[in-house]
Specification:
Number of helices: 6
Structural class: alpha+beta
Order of helices and strands: EEEEHEHHEHEEHEEH
Largest sheet: 6 strands, antiparallel
Radius of gyration: 20 Å
Strand content: 15-25%
Length: 273
Amino acid sequence: MLRLKSAGFGIDILSSIGGAGHSLVFEVSAPETGLQKAILKIFRFPVVKDPNNLHNELDPYIYFDREERAYSYLSKANSPLFPRFIRSVVISSEDEAALLEAKLLSFRPASYRRKLRTLYPADLPLKALMVEFIPGPRLSSKTPSQAPELGRQLLKAIEIMHDCGVVWGDAKWRNILVIPDGTERYGGVLINQVRGLDSTSGDRLVVLDFSNSHCWIPQNFAGADVPCPKESAQWQAMIKQENLIIEGMISKWAIILVPLEVVSTEQDPNITI
């Protein structure tokens, strides 16, 4: 078992869950803090297409920044429809070397640093997020047994996201977990109970993965994408486009639900999420 010490306390890597596009995902524990299980997402640096063209370079932490920011905004809603955010972690050079030696990093951070050595420090560290571990399978396009209820939960999750100033930007089946009814957590407590859900029986839905998200509240993130004003046509177009994607996903289950509010009458073809 590999122990990381970057957080100031030991983080034990229990298993690799694989890649999530912009990050590598691990199931971990932190016994010193009483945290028996959590998810650690170590973010990749973005792909460098042309190191000679500085205008095309991305912020090295663009995906980390987006996800951290989204979790920060969503935590204010305190909703069981999203994983709980635990903390951010800057990976030390010693821990990075240990991860490479254990063959747990499927990319080479040193290669990125070499390409952009004129822009960023040679010791540019990797960054990671720790979030709540939630047992349950990822959703698929196959109609679930409790489609109407899960559809309502998904619509509610999108409504909360948009109210919090977050556009998910990555709406797809694999980014949705289903917690089976009666799932237990540590101490034999039902997961629905411990997450503050009502006693109604049935599967529960959790939305995750926000590395492609957009947030409307302006922030001073050097080099990161600049969030657009909430009242802008661009923001409204992104919300409309995401609403249409969600409605399209739910319609594949052949169920009828109250449609999401459409906040603009015209979709900007130049807007992508």
